């Protein structure tokens, strides 16, 4: 990096590993846009559920992915994560619906869907500095990213984070169920053939069980300063 700031930053990791929280904090610190690639897989899933498209109908799901138009707005004081519009409609909150959680990994394992969304993700990264979070950003979407971070934590810690998040939104969920759902999604994401979840060989791998998001960001900033 030769003393310069990295222009493209990839943040990957399993569910609730802190990719979005850390990505947004880092984006604010560096003044970069942040893109949550998972939102695109979630949006296809949301639309498929609404239109009654079966999770096995790969052709129809790929057609949906091709048809949807995504627009990300930057974060603000009120909406730190920014907003996500699909075909002009704000779907940010709907993307976190438990039904979407339960089905998204079935959609994300379809190679045709991935190909279409990866193309759009690469396009978003063409215009300048960017921080992108997901599962395959450092390995497939932006393999030449200037900085790759892989965030991890035990499944119990990650499930607890997701449990707190859901509870704070007023959802009535049981911890054991949240843990089981998260482990099931991890399994699907890690064991699928198309772009499985794994750290890029040159990623900075961080285990975040006992770290706050600010501490994770501080360590990443340290790494940037050292490069
Ligand atoms: O926020 P959380 O980590 O729970 O999930 P997410 O980042 O919104 O991703 C939802 C799902 O989309 C993941 O479980 C993956 O199945 C899929 N995904 C993917 O396959 N590739 C990406 N680059 C991002 C998400």
Beta-strand share of residues = 5-15%
> Over all CA atoms, what is the radius of gyration?
17 Å
CATH topological fold name? Rossmann fold
Strand order in the largest sheet? 2-6-1-7-8
Q: Return the domain count.
A: 1
- Give the total of beta strands: 8
- Major β-sheet annotation: 5 strands, parallel
- Structural class category: alpha/beta
Question: Which CATH architecture is right?
Answer: 3-Layer(aba) Sandwich
Name of the CATH first level:
Alpha Beta
Task: Give the overall average pLDDT.
Answer: 93
Shape estimate: globular
Bound small-molecule species: cytidine-5'-diphosphate
Give me the CATH superfamily.
Answer: P-loop containing nucleotide triphosphate hydrolases
Offer a few descriptive terms.
single chain; 227 residues; alpha/beta; Rossmann fold; five-stranded parallel sheet; 49% helix; globular; binds cytidine-5'-diphosphate
């Amino acid at each position: 990096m030769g003393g310069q700031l990295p222009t493209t930053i990839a943040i990957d990791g399993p569910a609730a590993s802190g990719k979005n929280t850390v990505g947004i904090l880092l984006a604010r610190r560096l003044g970069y846009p942040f893109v949550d690639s998972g939102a695109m897989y979630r949006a296809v899933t949301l639309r498929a559920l609404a239109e009654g498209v079966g999770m096995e109908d790969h052709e129809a799901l790929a057609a949906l992915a091709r048809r949807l138009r995504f627009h990300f707005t930057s974060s603000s004081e009120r909406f730190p994560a920014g907003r996500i519009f699909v075909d002009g409609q704000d779907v940010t909150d709907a993307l976190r619906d438990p039904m979407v959680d339960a089905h998204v990994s079935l959609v994300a394992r379809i190679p045709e869907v991935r190909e279409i969304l990866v193309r759009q993700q690469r396009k978003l990264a063409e215009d300048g500095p960017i921080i992108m979070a997901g599962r395959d950003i450092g390995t497939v979407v932006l393999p030449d990213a200037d900085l790759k971070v892989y965030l991890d934590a035990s499944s119990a810690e990650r499930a607890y984070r997701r449990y707190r998040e859901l509870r704070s939104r007023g959802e009535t969920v049981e911890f054991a169920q949240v843990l089981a759902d998260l482990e099931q999604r991890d399994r699907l994401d890690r064991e699928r053939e198309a772009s499985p979840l794994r750290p890029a060989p040159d990623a900075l791998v961080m285990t975040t069980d006992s770290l706050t998001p600010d501490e994770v960001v501080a360590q990443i900033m340290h790494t940037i300063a050292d490069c």
